[in-house]
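User: Hi! I'm working on a homework problem where we have to compare a predicted structure to a textbook description. Could you give me the structure for the chain below?
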Amino acid sequence: MPPTAQWFGNDEARIHRRLERERFVLPVGASFYEQRNEANIGERINIALEAIEDANRAKLDSVFRNIDFNSEANLGRTKDRNGRLRNLLEAFAKPALDLHPSQVSGDITQVGCGHTLPILVPAKDGFDSEGAVCLLANLNNFGFDYVARQKVQATYLTWYIVEQLPVIDLADYDRPFGPTTARDLGLDYDSPPFVWDDDERRHLRARLDALYFHLYGLSRDDAGYVLNTFPIVRREDEKAFGRYRTRDMILTYMNALAAGDSETVVTV
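Assistant: Happy to help. Predicted structure tokens:
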């Protein structure tokens, strides 16, 4: 619901009229946040959900009937259960999670998402399809993956972690490598489609990973250390090729790029 108290103060009549015009009706007394310090938070949430369902029968009939926030089996004993629910309520009460159109721009309010489902929307100024390709490549290289794994403490990316991740500035793609620039190393392909080739794709990816290690300022030894932290990739390579071919190929392409050679297809 929108922050009606912020808009209308203590004018209960105006707040009530405003809530009646919302897509979903919030009955009086059916707010969760005010219940966060009660000794029976789970029970009060259940009561509030039942009231919300009853007030929105056409849209929410039976939606909450099988949800129990007072379940010891699912949420633990009373003290633990209250703590978990209190933290949940306080987390979702943060202003940063207000997705009402008056608080955020664009169409993001058409879907339900919180701070654990970040959506990257690049700035429009100076950002084109070429920039989108660079961003996509950046998000899919070993260096970026390594840093993300060091930051993440759970199974999802919260927004404050996303803001710390190392995205290369578009201006850095103008860095020269021999007669060409980083931008030209497979990030600006505008020719006709070509037949899928596993080996060619492996080389293209290896050159791009080598490029990003250079853009991040990593040495060959640093890159080797990062690549050794991907045990699944190593295991699959050793099963298919008898050695860690991905690492060897990327490091060899790093040598080539450092020497200004952006054309040679390396042999490892």
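For your comparison, note the following. The radius of gyration is 26 Å. The first strand starts at residue 176 and ends at 177. Good luck with the assignment!
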